[in-house]
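BUG-342 | component: ligand-complex export | severity: low

The export step for nicotinamide-adenine-dinucleotide jobs runs without errors, but we want the raw record kept on the ticket for reference. Input record follows.
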Amino acid sequence: MSSLRVGVIGCGSIAIKRHLPEYLANPRATLAAVCDSVPGRAEQAARDFGAPLAFADYRDVLARADVDAVSVCLPNHLHAQVALAAFAAGKHVLCEKPMAASVAQARAMVDAAEAAGRVLMVGHNQRFMRVHQVAKQLVHSGQLGAVLRFATTFAHGGPEGWSIDGADSWFFRRQEAVFGALGDLGVHKADLLRWLLEDEVASVAAVTTTIEKHGDVEDNAVCLVRMTSGALGTIAASWTQHGGEDNSTHLYCEHGVVHIGSDPGYPLVVRREDGSVERRSLEAMSTNDHQAASGVIDEFVDAVLSGREPAVNGRAGAAALAVIAAAAESSRTGRTVVPEPL
Ligand SMILES: NC(=O)c1ccc[n+]([C@@H]2O[C@H](COP(=O)([O-])OP(=O)(O)OC[C@H]3O[C@@H](n4cnc5c(N)ncnc54)[C@H](O)[C@@H]3O)[C@@H](O)[C@H]2O)c1
């Protein structure tokens, strides 16, 4: 296979801002079909991005022999159902995050991909940001010693400023979203931490709450996370940050501190114990308002065409999901929770 023929299922914001333009820009991918259940949306996306086929029902995309792979850009409760049907139809799957509604569903997706011999990748784009890649190299160079503590935040004004359906979005309905800010934002940071620290989350104690938004999901979550290395830190996810986006991570190490995404001029700042400060002017981090290419789509296309594991495989997606599921359970029960094993 020299070119990957792709169907994009769900033509809302993430499809329009990242999947569709990035497939279009990838010389080794062809947009074969698009799908959305709201009349006119798929047709509009087909016109805007040059897809020859537009459908309202995802099963029509999966039935096409000229579609090799699909992007699942749907509300969270549909991810597992559509991904499982896609594997049954022999397609490769790039699934948006959070990967599924439960760890059991995520496990079933991993098993189905393996049984079908198809690629499953999850859209955790934080790993592809240059600043996170440079920070990871620094942490694992040993210069700063072990990471002892961390604080990571993902916060903005809420999905009403993002979703194609604005304030009426599925993001605010638990039946469709399953999680609120935890599933929208916290899960990204769960994946980032596991990858950045090359460590697993050992336990989570969390409080989630709804302070401002309508709907029945949390608009804020603060999670106290212990890693298996012993490092202790927090993941904060919020939809009530009015005035810019916060996508920062701070790593407090034995011999210095790494600040990511907190100085607008310098995405990476390193303060060493000898008093020196290094400010790295790497490319700015992508935000909801200023989208940069995610790298996710190129990675998926390359993984499928070269027959290798993608950078964010199904197990990684499931592990990040297990962390936010543990946080949700902790908030419900008032107990510290160990993430479900895969
Ligand atoms: N990786 C990231 O950084 C990132 C960012 C935002 C959203 N996401 C994820 O992407 C997914 C989609 O989010 P979004 O922001 O695009 O939402 P959105 O509300 O903008 O769009 C969702 C689209 O799905 C369509 N849809 C709903 N049910 C359907 C069905 N049964 N068949 C076909 N189409 C259907 C809707 O009509 C809508 O157009 C979510 O899982 C979300 O968490 C990922």
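Assignee comment: Attached the raw record above. Residues 4-124+294-311 form a domain with the Rossmann fold fold (CATH 3.40.50.720).
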